[in-house]
Write a structure and sequence with these properties.
Elements lengths: L13 H19 L6 E6 L2 E7 L2 H4 L6 H13 L7 E7 L3 H9 L4 E6 L24 E3 L4 H17 L11
Parallel strand pairs: 3-4, 4-5
Antiparallel strand pairs: 1-2, 1-3
Helix pairs in contact: 1-5
Bound molecules: zinc ion (ZN).
């Protein structure tokens, strides 16, 4: 048996906010092209190894959530599916699919911004990342920069409600 890796920090750090702000930039990028603004980065040893932002509309892919895309990018960059040593930063509480992906990818730690009372699976509707029945658990920090992360979404949905009908996406009609 090898010795266990060092435990991830129990509290958030200034670096956490810095990386979450990088995820916020990706959320803005999503909003600019009409995607629900959620952004995500994966960090290993203080470096971003994967980025993702919601692309469901553009890719016509129900799985194209920011977290899934960032995990794929990180795995591809590192050449491994096991993302031990990684922290994932995302602007919105992960859904069931993404929380499941975090467990499956063996990510050490997840730091997210706004809670999602309607779909969140990391504290709101369920706690997939800390479920003792699963074979892997993560350290979770939720509600970091929650105001800023929630504002991106609120601005997006407000603008969408105020948008003239003719400009709606085909799938919304
Ligand atoms: Zn998701």
């Amino acid at each position: 048996m090898t010795s266990p890796p060092p435990a991830p920090p129990a509290t958030t750090t200034p670096d956490d906010e810095r990386f979450l702000r990088e995820a916020l930039l990706l959320a803005d990028e999503a909003a600019a092209v009409g995607e629900v603004p959620v952004g995500c980065v994966v960090v290993v040893d203080g470096a971003v190894v994967g980025r993702g932002r919601n692309r469901r509309e553009q890719d016509r892919d129900p799985l194209a959530h920011a977290e899934v895309l960032a995990l794929r990018a990180a795995s591809s960059a590192l050449g491994r599916w096991r993302l031990a040593g990684a922290t994932l930063y995302v602007t919105l509480e992960p859904c069931f699919m993404c929380a499941g992906a975090l467990v499956n990818a063996r990510v050490d730690r997840v730091v997210f911004g706004a809670f999602d009372p309607k779909a969140g699976a990391v504290g709101s509707l369920a706690d997939v990342c800390r479920d003792a029945r699963l074979n892997h658990r993560l350290v979770v920090h939720g509600g970091v920069l929650a105001e800023e992360c929630g504002d991106v979404l609120r601005r997006f949905f407000r603008a969408r409600r105020e948008r003239p009908k003719a400009a709606t996406l085909p799938e919304e009609r």
